[in-house]
Each structure stands twice: as structure tokens, then as C-alpha cells.
């Protein structure tokens, strides 16, 4: 009975030892460590006999475990300190330059408020999300839906003594809120423009033009389920221009004779070796060439007549003929020129 207990105890210790492997790992060549990058480089050759005898996944898993254990052993040799009950090791500067697909992102430039807070020494304090609501006598959110001390839900507003008694205080509050939202959005856009080194728009530059407003109105009207078909128009509003035509699609079910004819014409064009000729373009080109040839012959004939008389050079004779109206204009057709010659 004692032998059985000893055997079971030895087997349990062996199984426990296999589960909890030793932190001491033996390697023929020491690993190269870059603790700044948590990198360990193993220069030892792979044992092909063990790699082929065992499963590939098991062998690689055991190899990765041993190298990780050596890296952890090196980390415990570094100076450490305890921060909030956790042991933290101080890593050295990395020595291996790791490749990057893109350059290191530049730090975001501070906003105007961050610059002002740094100049005045204002430190950001974390606020709690819940505050006490005196009206409802309970804790509520500071912002958002059902927030505490929400004055937009008041059904009665006191009119100040200096205000106009006929002024709508509810509309005044809504207008002030819209102005605050617009101001915050403008400041956000300015910060983005300043971060990208763009020209910071002012109040006048931020205002949209008339064309932009008209374009935005047109886009808003057609941004409905019916594409603006049932959208009401103002009394003097004109119909939008340049809306374009919708693409007409042929029915999927019906008479296929038209589709068959179109496909046959397309196949004829593809199968024909001769290129398609534009008759109108060819006729216009031929007429233009004939007109140019006739005009050149007429100019040559006018030059020969001037040389026979001997009264004036060639250039002057041409000038006189044009001044008297004998030469036809260059853009007229052949038929019109014949008529001018008869006159």
C-alpha cells in the first residue's frame, strides 16, 4: 500500500513539474535582447530531429515558451519600482530600429484654450458625471438627456426688469443656445484648420455665399424618399435648373425583338473589318478641300494677271482686287463663289 502511495505521489509531482516548467532554460548560444522593444533574437539552429519527430505546432510552441522565459528573466534583472501595488520595471532605450510603413505621427498642436490654460496655469480637474438636482431632489447627469437643472423644460420663465415685456423669453433662450452651438462649431473648425496649417476662416469668411445657400437648399429638397416630388414650393420660387435626366432602363420582361435587333447591330459593328464612316463628316471634309483648292487657283490666276500688265507688284494687285470686291471671302462655299463671280 505504501508503494502505491509513493508511486502516485511521484506521478503527481512529475505531472506538476511538466505543467510548471523551470525558469532556467539552456541554450547553446545566448539570445540577443533589446529590452526597450521587448525583443529577443534567437540565433540557435533548429533541431531538425525533434522538429520532425514531434508535431510542428508543439515544437514551435515549446521554442517560443523557452525564448519568452529568457526574455522575462532579463526583465527581472532591470531596476523596478512599485506603483499602486504593481511592480513596474524601468526599460532602457530601444536599440533596434523597427521598420514603419508610415512616418511617426506628429503631436497634435495645442488649441487656443490649451495655450491659454498653460499660460495661466489652469489645470484640468475631473468632474463627476452626476450632480444634485434641487428641483427633483435626486442625482442626475451633468449633461445630455434628463440632465440636472435643465432650464429648457421650464414652463414658466421670469421676465427681467430691464427686458422688453413683450419679448418671448423662450425664443430668446433657444436663439442663445443656437448661437452657442454655432460658436463652438466655428472654434472646432478653426482648431482643425490651425492643426493642418490652413488659413483660419473669420466670421465673414465662414458665412456661405448665395450660390452655396441655393445649392444647399436644392440638395435638401431632393433628399427625400420621393426625391422632392411632393415637396412644397414657396409662392415665388422657381423650378430648379440643371437637375439632369434620369437614366431610362428598358423593361426586363416584354417584347425582345428590339433588344434582339440592338444586339445584332452591335455584333455587325464588331464583326465588320471596315471601320464605320461618318458620311456627313466625310462630305464636309471633301467640300472644304475643294474650296481651299479653288481659292488657291484663283489667287494664282490673279497673280499672273498682275505680272502681265506690269503696273503693280503681286502683293499690291491682290490688295486692290480685295478692295474692289472682286475676290470672294474665304469662308463661302463653292456655289456661292460662282454666283459672286457672275455678278
Automatic annotation (TrEMBL):
<dbReference type="GO" id="GO:0042273">
    <property type="term" value="P:ribosomal large subunit biogenesis"/>
</dbReference>
<dbReference type="GO" id="GO:0005730">
    <property type="term" value="C:nucleolus"/>
</dbReference>
<feature type="compositionally biased region" description="Basic residues">
    <location>
        <begin position="297"/>
        <end position="308"/>
    </location>
</feature>
<dbReference type="InterPro" id="IPR007023">
    <property type="entry name" value="Ribosom_reg"/>
</dbReference>
<dbReference type="Pfam" id="PF04939">
    <property type="entry name" value="RRS1"/>
</dbReference>
<feature type="compositionally biased region" description="Basic and acidic residues">
    <location>
        <begin position="230"/>
        <end position="240"/>
    </location>
</feature>
<feature type="region of interest" description="Disordered">
    <location>
        <begin position="230"/>
        <end position="257"/>
    </location>
</feature>
<dbReference type="GO" id="GO:0030687">
    <property type="term" value="C:preribosome, large subunit precursor"/>
</dbReference>
<keyword id="KW-0690">Ribosome biogenesis</keyword>
<comment type="similarity">
    <text>Belongs to the RRS1 family.</text>
</comment>
<dbReference type="GO" id="GO:0000447">
    <property type="term" value="P:endonucleolytic cleavage in ITS1 to separate SSU-rRNA from 5.8S rRNA and LSU-rRNA from tricistronic rRNA transcript (SSU-rRNA, 5.8S rRNA, LSU-rRNA)"/>
</dbReference>
<feature type="region of interest" description="Disordered">
    <location>
        <begin position="273"/>
        <end position="343"/>
    </location>
</feature>
<protein>
    <recommendedName>
        <fullName>Ribosome biogenesis regulatory protein</fullName>
    </recommendedName>
</protein>
<comment type="function">
    <text>Involved in ribosomal large subunit assembly.</text>
</comment>
<feature type="compositionally biased region" description="Low complexity">
    <location>
        <begin position="324"/>
        <end position="333"/>
    </location>
</feature>
<keyword id="KW-0539">Nucleus</keyword>
<feature type="compositionally biased region" description="Basic residues">
    <location>
        <begin position="334"/>
        <end position="343"/>
    </location>
</feature>
Amino acid at each position: 500500500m505504501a508503494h502505491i502511495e509513493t508511486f502516485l505521489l511521484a506521478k503527481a509531482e512529475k505531472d506538476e513539474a511538466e505543467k510548471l516548467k523551470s525558469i532556467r532554460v539552456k541554450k547553446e548560444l545566448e539570445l540577443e535582447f533589446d529590452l526597450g522593444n521587448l525583443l529577443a533574437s534567437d540565433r540557435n539552429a533548429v533541431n531538425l530531429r525533434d522538429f520532425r519527430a514531434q508535431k510542428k505546432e508543439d515544437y514551435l510552441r515549446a521554442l517560443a515558451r523557452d525564448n519568452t522565459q529568457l526574455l522575462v528573466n532579463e526583465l527581472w534583472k532591470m531596476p523596478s519600482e512599485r506603483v499602486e501595488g504593481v511592480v513596474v520595471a524601468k526599460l532602457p532605450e530601444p536599440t533596434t530600429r523597427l521598420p514603419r510603413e508610415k512616418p511617426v505621427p506628429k503631436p497634435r498642436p495645442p488649441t487656443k484654450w490649451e495655450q491659454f490654460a498653460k499660460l495661466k496655469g489652469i489645470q484640468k480637474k475631473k468632474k463627476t458625471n452626476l450632480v444634485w438636482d434641487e428641483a427633483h431632489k435626486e442625482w442626475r447627469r451633468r449633461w445630455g438627456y434628463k440632465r440636472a437643472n435643465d432650464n429648457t423644460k421650464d414652463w414658466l420663465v421670469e421676465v427681467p426688469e430691464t427686458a422688453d415685456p413683450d419679448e418671448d423669453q423662450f425664443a430668446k433662450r433657444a436663439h442663445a443656445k443656437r448661437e452657442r452651438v454655432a460658436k463652438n462649431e466655428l472654434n472646432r473648425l478653426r482648431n482643425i484648420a490651425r492643426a493642418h496649417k490652413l488659413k483660419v476662416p473669420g466670421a465673414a469668411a465662414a458665412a456661405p455665399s448665395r450660390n452655396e445657400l441655393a445649392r444647399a437648399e436644392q440638395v435638401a429638397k431632393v433628399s427625400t424618399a420621393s426625391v422632392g416630388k411632393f415637396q412644397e414650393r414657396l409662392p415665388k420660387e422657381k423650378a430648379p435648373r440643371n437637375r439632369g435626366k434620369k437614366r431610362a432602363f428598358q423593361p426586363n420582361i416584354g417584347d425582345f425583338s428590339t433588344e434582339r435587333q440592338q444586339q445584332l447591330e452591335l455584333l455587325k459593328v464588331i464583326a465588320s473589318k471596315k471601320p464605320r464612316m461618318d458620311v456627313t463628316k466625310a462630305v464636309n471634309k471633301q467640300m472644304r478641300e475643294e474650296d481651299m483648292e479653288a481659292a488657291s487657283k484663283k489667287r494664282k490666276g490673279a497673280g499672273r494677271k498682275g505680272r502681265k500688265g506690269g503696273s503693280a507688284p503681286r502683293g499690291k494687285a491682290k490688295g486692290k482686287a480685295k478692295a474692289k470686291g472682286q475676290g470672294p471671302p474665304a469662308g463661302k462655299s463653292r456655289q456661292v463663289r460662282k454666283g459672286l463671280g457672275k455678278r
